[in-house]
């Protein structure tokens, strides 16, 4: 089977632009859910620093909970699966897509459906939250740029919600 | 016809006339007018008909507390809004408003017959009269009462408007931008706190808008606030509810006041989380209770001042005041200075401040102390009033065309009460005021009881020489509750204000008793001869004023009502004419009809294709959980009924999950990928529930286990290939996996690649045929599906949907949790004894399986049912009886859970829950259905290939 299968994405691949904000689908990436009782165990496994404070990100790894991290890395990145260790590494690369929301109105747009206080949400913070009824992981890359990780089957709803609100 | 536009004054823009209509008649007002002020300026006094008696009603107030002047506004098809307060509707060019609750017209209303028959409609009339016969309620009473008693017509068309919504955060939220709210905002403006100020009116200022001496201050203050970078001001925004932890709901009206709103959102829902809240809601003037106090032209004294000073409209040419409070005197002095004629000031008090008397004398106003109004003449507008000395003597008439009431002030504690702050009674002002807060909130200004409007007397009903049981002195204007209704309630034994309220409906209208609660309390207190604080207090609940459903729904309408989850393969199904069904939030293909096929024909064809060659099915929605860690097997062993520790890596096992009560809650086939890694599957609808349940046990019961759960439902697209040709089709596509029966037996899993994509390949079957479930990274689901369809052409590969899947599994007797079980079915009831580990020390639900009721005979058990007439397909949900000749109601011994036509078997098959069913094999039961009672015999549940010969190939 030489000819490879092509990907099908749940939202348009062309960016959406409205006054003060653009919404676009980020390229595919590798995602791993990392679970351990201590971040130290992951540092030993991966050989990189792991953020210890919930909400912090470091080198593409976000600390989402007391024993939960999300690693995002370039597509194709593989990591040790920690066989036999008290660590759980699970490949969730295709579980979600990432929407990039960018522009001076980005925070305002996200706050239309997300109860987080984005005026006090520092650059580099990541958190699991909701947009209306849909669970998302929100990451602030810069003052005007956010990544929203959303499970695939909810993403077309989220795309419609964001683009509808952005055009209001 | 006596209101008129004053030659000068007001904040309306006299250079911008606007044309609008009311009940089809065209009028002109000015920009800045409300519908109320513009109609008053045109001499209109009659605004509506009352709820019960259909009495003609005019304006009582000038703000959102208005109970009478409810109108409907028509903004075109689907854009009809009933029950708006005319005092809150801003006029704009082309505004179309109509009156309500009248037929055929506002002036000539047949419903007014109720007013003449009023003596037959006492409090509790509906409760007492329409009790029996019960059968009359649905067909006669309810529709008839609904037609004659009521408010505006509910819209019947879809609302085409868009609504916006947002969350917002601030350190300080100030609700109410009157003088007190503005002062609080100015104080915070210089700080680094984030301040939001909201006000329900089109312009900030509150009571200052009706006081020209404050306009310069207002302008200065608003400029300072607008310039302050830390202050956000939202006008036309109503804080309708105050919820836990300083969470406030507010609706901002964006376009209703504009002549042409384009397609911009109509309203915006604000969900505000505030660090601190300052309530500056102000106070509402209390009406007075006397005969004829609801005649059009009788209104609150503060309202008349607002109409004159804010809108430049006089409410009459000759205006009288009935006061128990100083504030009315000041209002009347302001009116006199604005050029309105004053007929008289009547005050129930024996003495008032000498300064008031002097000012009245200077303005040459007749004053009558120790007097009260005892009657009003004029049906559609005040013509004369009758007054009498408080001792009943000296009855005389005074000609006037408007009568103002100054009964004192009620602090607006609505939002304070929503927040569960306590109240204390304040004798001085005869009202409840805020006491102890329950949130980080404080009240300032008039709503805190700190109003400096002068002195007043608190009077329940004005003295009158007339028989109090024969007069209509209104307390609740909107719900037509009179003083004698409240007294009647007391006479009939009601003691608590909560009961009096519900019996009389006092305070239960859309205005929530803003003008009536305190008067109602006073009257009940007198009638019961008890202090007010002993009678209790009714509770204010959101919303402060009525809000549209559209605003509360926000974005959640149409496509955004709820997320419809779709798989990667869904678009292919849609392009190939699939008929869909919703399973939980998922949209799934139910069947794929070809031209001319109905569901029956399509499903028969799909079933035969799977049994004879190969079918392809999108199983992506199945829940998946990756269970990883050294204690993974131990954890699953505790959760599931069957043993898991000995399962070899590479093998699968059916898992049955019970709740603590021993009843089946989910099932699924799970695979062991490695000693410390399992790939679980759950039902489509149970995915989130199962993960939550497992997470709950892990975190609360067994936190010592080193195992973690990750939802991987959406990581994989899953394609099921089922049928005798499945292996032949799959073989050339797969790399690195030996598909032979020996190397890859039934209930096994292998990892490898398919068409160059990594796959977790399961050999499992929910059809009874040789079958595989191909898991690939979700993004490749559709492309792989299309490749398999192309490769499968030579086998006449047939896509099938959930309906065919249901038939095929029923032929094999596989249950569907939630269809064949209903939360009361144990593994034994479902003949799943084999899936319960008898030697296991424990698993979730084990202890419950030993309870006496669970092991008792006669429980409903899952069995097969074969109708005597093979062509009859029973209805799912049909009840089952043992003897069809018993009298109705018959004893029902069970019901049909699954029922299909089996094309493979050429007859119908069914599953049913039947009491003691497993001991009744071969017995005949009866199933009454519309038209006929059918007979069926109890059988085993496996209707096809009971030896499983087709699986193990």
Fold topology:
The complex is a heterodimer of chains A (168) and B (953).
Chain A: E1 16-18, E2 21-25, E3 29-36, H1 39-46, E4 57-58, E5 61-65, E6 68-74, E7 87-91, E8 96-102, H2 106-111, E9 126-131, E10 134-142, E11 145-151, H3 152-166
Antiparallel strand pairs in A: 1-2, 2-8, 3-6, 3-7, 4-5, 5-6, 8-11, 9-10, 10-11
Chain B: E1 4-5, E2 13-22, E3 25-31, H1 35-41, E4 48-49, E5 56-57, E6 70-74, E7 80-85, E8 95-98, H2 113-116, H3 125-129, H4 136-148, E9 163-175, H5 179-189, E10 195-198, H6 215-227, E11 231-234, E12 237-243, E13 247-253, E14 267-279, E15 283-285, E16 298-300, H7 301-311, E17 313-314, E18 318-323, H8 326-338, E19 341-347, H9 354-362, E20 367-369, E21 371-377, E22 384-389, E23 396-399, E24 402-406, E25 409-411, H10 414-418, E26 423-426, E27 431-434, E28 441-443, E29 474-476, E30 481-482, H11 483-491, H12 497-504, H13 517-528, H14 549-553, H15 570-575, E31 579-583, E32 586-591, H16 599-612, E33 615-618, E34 623-628, H17 632-639, E35 652-658, E36 664-674, E37 677-682, H18 687-700, E38 708-711, E39 716-722, H19 726-730, E40 734-735, E41 748-754, E42 757-763, E43 771-777, H20 781-791, E44 798-799, H21 802-811, H22 852-855, E45 860-867, E46 879-881, E47 892-902, E48 907-915, E49 924-929, E50 932-939
Parallel strand pairs in B: 2-8, 9-10, 9-14, 10-11, 14-28, 16-24, 18-19, 18-24, 19-20, 33-44
Antiparallel strand pairs in B: 1-17, 2-3, 4-5, 6-7, 6-8, 12-13, 13-14, 15-25, 21-22, 22-23, 26-27, 29-30, 31-32, 33-39, 34-37, 34-38, 35-36, 36-37, 39-43, 40-41, 41-42, 42-43, 45-48, 45-50, 46-47, 47-48, 49-50
